[in-house]
């Protein structure tokens, strides 16, 4: 009965909402929004950044991105503090990450693939202002490489000391580059370096530098999240069954 | 029917269906992990709706690559045929934040399971820790 | 847009809805999680068709890989079947 009421409710709102969004012009008869047009014209002319999404994320709305990486940092910290006690209690019983050792094929393939995955991630965030991609995508790809290592090798463990340092330094670089804009007499996150030529690797002033910092920060934070989640121990009875 | 009309119905229909399947799961399911799964599905549907709103017919990705500049010569002409970049920047942010939210919610589910030994919210009655 | 892309999009949209209903209906949580990652995969292709390569890259990396692994690790530590 409760399910039926929920189904009718959801169907009714869904159909209504579909017809509301159906009224909005799509595709052919669509006019570009004013804000979007402003960003599209000023990104290649003033900033010399080829990828308009990058220039919005890092420069026009850079303050939002600073808030976003802060939210990610808070999520990592919250995860660590929520799982802290249970980790300490259960580690004594069983510190094995996976109950079965990964096969030899996975381990040998990991040796070839992980450097390539990290290289791809670095490529994606260094070229964030020229091609699709950027700090967030590159950081996530690097974290995927670390995930491969964590799953394939039982004895591999993430050293938290350098990760904390990388994260703090990357965050400080972002905030410092923003504050330098104020010190040279302009606004926060002002592009104070020379902008160069469109579609050059060294173009866009501080935008590539900030995106590289974001890439390091996101990679460090997601590695921390994955390591915290994967270091939850296997329940004791499950391992006993397998032995 | 016109191709663009079919595309419009497919994209908007798929995104709104995803949104409300997720809402149905959140409303009726009693398992905490299923509820987080429903939230994740809702997140995906909303993101697709946003991107659909920014689409322009015969548009290209908002990147002034050498290929586009060679074909259209000036920046103004290239900007005319590009899709809206603002929604893409918004959704980029929303996906990464959604991942953080999912991770924290699942950690809370694990803590509740360790304490009450169940993931069914009907059985978790006492709010005392 | 050409007819081929339209056909692909319609099939993808039906697949998306089917995967979402399957994920919500299935009692086995691991199967439901894998169905959710299929949703993310199809959505990533949709973003590419809608000319948003940045978003497609993010969705492919986060939705397919990281969200799935976190769900599976948490399910391993709790109960696999919902009752």
In short:
Chain B has helices spanning 3-28, 32-53, 66-72, 75-80, 85-116.
Which parts of chain A are unreliable, with pLDDT below 50 for 5 consecutive residues or more? 236-243
For the sheet with most strands of chain B, the description reads: none
Q: Just name the CATH architecture of the domain at 3-57 and 84-116 in chain B.
A: Orthogonal Bundle
Strand tally of chain A is 0
Q: What order do the SSEs of chain A take from the amino end to the carboxyl end, as H and E?
A: HHHHHHHHHH
Distance between the termini of chain B: 60 Å
Helix-strand makeup class of chain B: mainly alpha
Ranges of chain B where pLDDT stays below 50 over 5 or more residues in a row are none
Which radius of gyration of chain B do the C-alpha atoms yield? 21 Å
H/E element order of chain B: HHHHH
Report the portion of residues of chain A in β strands.
under 5%
User: Residue-averaged pLDDT of chain B, rounded?
Assistant: 88
The number of distinct helices of chain A, counting runs of at least 4 residues, comes to: 10
Textual characterization of the structure:
The complex is a heterotrimer of chains A (243), B (129) and C (83). With 243 residues, chain A is an all-alpha fold. In chain A, 70% of the residues lie in helices and 0% in strands. Chain A has one domain (49-242). In chain A, helix 3 (52-60) packs across helix 4 (62-82). Chain A is globular and about 55 Å long. Chain B has 129 residues and is mainly alpha-helical. Chain B has five helices and no strands. In chain B, helix 1 packs antiparallel against helix 2 and helix 2 runs antiparallel to helix 5 (85-116). The model of chain B has no long low-confidence stretch (mean pLDDT 88). Chain C is 83% helix and 0% strand. Chain C has helices spanning 3-25, 29-49, 53-77. The longest helix of chain C is centred in the C-terminal third of the chain and has 25 residues, at 53-77. The radius of gyration of chain C is 15 Å and the shape is flat. Chains in contact: A-B, A-C, B-C. At the A-B interface, helix 1, helix 2, helix 3, helix 4 and helix 9 of A face helix 1, helix 2, helix 4 and helix 5 of B.
